[in-house]
Amino acid sequence: MTEEDRVFLITGASSGIGAATARHAAKAGFRVVLAARSIDKLAALVEELGGPDRALAVQCDVIEFDDQKAMAAAALDAFGRIDVVLANAGVGSTSAGIENGDPANWRDMIRTNFYGCALTAKVCLPELRKRRGHILLLGSRAGRMPLKGSIYGATKWAVTGLGHNLMEELEGTGVRCTLIEPGMVDTPFFETPKPDALRPDDVAASIMYAVSQPPNVSVSEVLVRPTPPTQS
Ligand SMILES: NC(=O)c1ccc[n+]([C@@H]2O[C@H](COP(=O)([O-])OP(=O)(O)OC[C@H]3O[C@@H](n4cnc5c(N)ncnc54)[C@H](OP(=O)(O)O)[C@@H]3O)[C@@H](O)[C@H]2O)c1
GO cellular component terms (predicted)? Predict the structure, then answer.
């Protein structure tokens, strides 16, 4: 099997880390399945990455189980296989803290960042088992450290737990599972630019590092942070 034939599915591919990873994966020879709600952005990325022979856009709201089932089915219909999955779709908080936070935003974060991620794993695992494939969950450094009053951070702690529990479930299947845990990344996730943060390409490179290991090597976690700026 050549790398050309392999299929890499990404949720949250319309922006930021997901779009950057799609570009890196396409460059590495993968065919890519791009899922998100913004179908116009995905369609533009499909054209950029070589058109329908190389890329597929799927409109999917990750909080909807039916959308996620349809996403996996569309990938198999178009390309006949799924080898690598990046569960990346996520949203941030609109107001800080527990006392002052907005419960509607908490629900969105829990459903997108945690429930959506678990659904992506559920719908893709049967195919990944067949392919002895690889699933990567986009957690966060915020899921590895206490963050004052952060419900967003708590959803990422849940993703860390999901990843480790999934690794246990996948024992003996040949399927690899990796948690990607970036510090701050300069993406549309934030309303203002973050010049001292990582770039989406940096995180995509970390993802491709885990994906490109030989079959006997499973990278469990990649915690990647921006280098602290020099004090002068
Ligand atoms: N930026 C950071 O500092 C940072 C650090 C650590 C971890 N992360 C995590 O990295 C992931 C990607 O974030 P990013 O920084 O690249 O932000 P971004 O540029 O805002 O991208 C978020 C992506 O998620 C998609 N998305 C959101 N809700 C969705 C839903 N219900 N269904 C389907 N897709 C949905 C968005 O697409 P649509 O709106 O088109 O659906 C978009 O493609 C997130 O899980 C985030 O928590 C970010």
Answer: membrane
